[in-house]
């Protein structure tokens, strides 16, 4: 009986971990061009930095590193409408 409970707890932990990874991946795909990648028991990316210089102070003293966001897509610039000449 205790073994069955432990299996369920283990399965619940694995499921929660997988859900956290999906959420972290989704948030990393947008936001800003630079991310703070934090290492540890729970590794995650904080992609809210607009420059490497802005990110670096957040990484000091932590198991973390700043990196380019591989999923960042810059906003599309609107093209000026051309007037047709007749």
Produce a short descriptive summary.
9% of the residues are buried.
Folded structure, characterized:
It is a single chain. This protein is an alpha+beta fold and 86 residues long. The protein contains two helices and three strands. The protein has helices at 2-28, 52-59; strands at residues 34-38, 44-49, 64-68. The longest helix has 27 residues, at 2-28.
From the structure above, extract its key features:
alpha+beta; three-stranded antiparallel β-sheet; 41% helix
Could you name the ranges where pLDDT drops below 50 across 5 or more consecutive residues?
none
Cα gyration radius (Å): 21 Å
Widest sheet: strand order? 2-1-3
**Mean of all residue-level pLDDT scores:** 80
Element-by-element helix/strand order: HEEHE
Give the terminus-to-terminus CA distance: 85 Å
Oligomer: single chain
Helical percentage? 40-55%
Task: Itemize the secondary structure elements and their pairings.
Blueprint (H helix, E strand, L loop, with lengths): L1 H27 L5 E5 L5 E6 L2 H8 L4 E5 L18
Antiparallel strand pairs: 1-2, 1-3
């Amino acid at each position: 009986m205790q073994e069955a409970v432990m299996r369920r707890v283990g399965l619940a932990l694995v499921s929660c971990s997988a859900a956290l990874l999906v959420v972290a991946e989704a948030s990393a795909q947008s936001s800003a061009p630079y991310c703070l990648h934090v290492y540890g028991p729970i590794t995650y990316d904080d992609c809210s930095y607009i420059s490497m210089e802005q990110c670096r102070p957040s990484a000091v003293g932590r198991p973390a590193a700043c990196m380019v966001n591989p999923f960042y897509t810059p906003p599309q610039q609107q093209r000026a409408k051309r007037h047709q000449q007749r």
